[in-house]
Every structure is written in structure tokens, then in C-alpha cells.
Design a protein that fits this description.
Blueprint lengths: L1 H18 L3 H11 L5 H11 L1 H14 L5 H24 L2 H25 L1
Helix pairs in contact: 1-2, 1-5, 2-3, 3-4, 3-5
């Protein structure tokens, strides 16, 4: 699980640097499908990973209700730190139109995956 959580954080960091996204579009679905977290645990853990920059109060509320995996949140945060730098640097080398199309394809793929998974839950 250590490598899984670090990988999720790294991927979220790269996509954050490339597209300005991470938590809702990548971390939450990845925790649900790859780590098999229930949705509330995935949401709380994602907020925990984004704790300092974004989700202190939200993560605290989830934590109070037992819906934050603290270790996973911290490991994802480590990956986010390095990944955001890598993604931001990659984005500088990719033409704007290509980056926009990549982002659109990513969102469509995630939407289809979420749609299909909702039908089987």
C-alpha cells in the first residue's frame, strides 16, 4: 500500500501541475478503485493529503467521524509535493492546445469510469 499511496500522490501532483487538478478528479477515484476505500474514506483522505493548502477544516470534520486514513493522507502529500513540480515543468514544454486536449480526454475518461462504476455499486 505504501507504493500505491505514494503513486497516487505522485500522479495527482503531476496532473495538478499540468492541469491544476488533483483531489477530486484523481485522488478520490484512485483511492476508491485502487485502494478499495469507501467513498467517505476516500474523500476524507484526499482532504487530509491536501490539508495544508486546502482542506484543514474539511479534513478535520471527516477525521472526527472516522473518515480519514492519516497515513495514506501523509504519503499522498509526499507524492503531491514532487509530482506538482514535475507536472508544472512538463506543462511548460507542451503546447497549450495539446494540454487542453489532454485535459479534456482525461476528464472524459474519468467521467466514463465513474459512470460505469456507479452502475455496479
Amino acid at each position: 500500500m505504501l507504493l500505491l499511496f505514494l503513486g497516487i500522490g505522485l500522479a495527482a501532483g503531476v496532473l495538478s501541475g499540468l492541469f491544476g487538478i488533483g483531489g477530486g478528479l484523481l485522488i478520490v477515484p484512485a483511492l476508491m478503485y485502487l485502494a478499495r476505500f469507501p467513498v467517505k474514506l476516500a474523500l476524507g483522505t484526499s482532504l487530509g493529503a491536501l490539508l495544508l493548502p486546502v482542506g484543514l477544516l474539511g479534513a478535520y470534520t471527516y477525521w472526527q467521524n472516522g473518515h480519514v486514513h492519516v497515513r495514506a493522507s501523509l504519503l499522498i502529500a509526499v507524492g503531491l509535493t514532487g509530482g506538482a513540480l514535475v507536472g508544472a515543468r512538463l506543462a511548460q514544454a507542451i503546447p497549450g492546445v495539446t494540454l487542453q486536449r489532454m485535459f479534456a480526454l482525461f476528464m472524459v475518461a474519468m467521467a466514463i469510469q465513474l459512470w460505469l462504476q456507479a452502475g455496479s455499486a
